[in-house]
Inverse folding.
């Protein structure tokens, strides 16, 4: 199967994509992870990407489409894959259409994680990351044993620039303007899921959709 997960930042796409990956045994392709890896490597494209992400803006379509084309043509994608964070614009969706046409494949399901802005701000602004090992935490849902200290390595926790409330609101507005129109583009295969629910309820709903 080829599955697209749509939803604003913080809607839980990554968590649910991992569960689908384990269920179907197909790779979870996260554009966020791919872009962060580029930033970590401090490559020319990584430096460019960081400027966009830190300001809450989207990375140019041409860059993303190229990365996705390279990834989906790898051998582990032969039985399908889950796209998390792509496409984000109509232009990216058309780019994906070209990629899939060349592969002689099609999208099976588009799952839209609908979440309110209030919930998103609470989820994202509470996230913290270890500066040494990268372990994730949340001040409300997954707090460390010692305040601002990683349980695993003792590193100091920090808040990413794109998880600050003002940037979150900007990201949500960008999503509404540029990504929400995809719901109409994919209207024949899109299914809406209430992303305000807890993780298990959402997982059960998605499992029933896939089955």
């Amino acid at each position: 199967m080829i599955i697209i997960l749509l939803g604003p930042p913080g809607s839980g796409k990554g968590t649910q994509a991992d569960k689908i990956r384990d269920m179907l045994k197909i790779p979870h392709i996260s554009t966020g992870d791919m872009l962060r890896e580029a930033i970590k490597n401090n490559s020319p494209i990584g430096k460019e990407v960081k400027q966009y992400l830190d300001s809450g803006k989207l990375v140019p379509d041409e860059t993303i489409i190229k990365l996705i084309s390279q990834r989906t043509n790898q051998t582990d994608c032969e039985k399908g894959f889950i796209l998390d964070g792509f496409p984000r614009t109509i232009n990216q969706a058309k780019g994906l259409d070209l990629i899939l046409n060349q592969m002689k494949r099609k999208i099976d399901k588009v799952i839209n994680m609908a979440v309110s802005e209030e919930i998103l701000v609470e989820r994202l602004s509470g996230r913290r990351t270890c500066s040494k090992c990268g372990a994730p935490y949340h001040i409300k849902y997954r707090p460390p044993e010692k305040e601002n200290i990683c349980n695993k390595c003792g590193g100091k926790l920090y808040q990413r620039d794109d998880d600050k409330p003002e940037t979150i609101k900007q990201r949500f507005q960008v999503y509404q303007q540029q990504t929400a129109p995809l719901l109409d583009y994919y209207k024949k295969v899109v299914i809406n899921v209430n992303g305000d629910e807890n993780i298990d309820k959402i997982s059960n709903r998605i499992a029933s959709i896939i089955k």
User: Anything to note?
Assistant: The radius of gyration is 17 Å. The chain has a mean pLDDT of 90. The first strand starts at residue 2 and ends at 6.
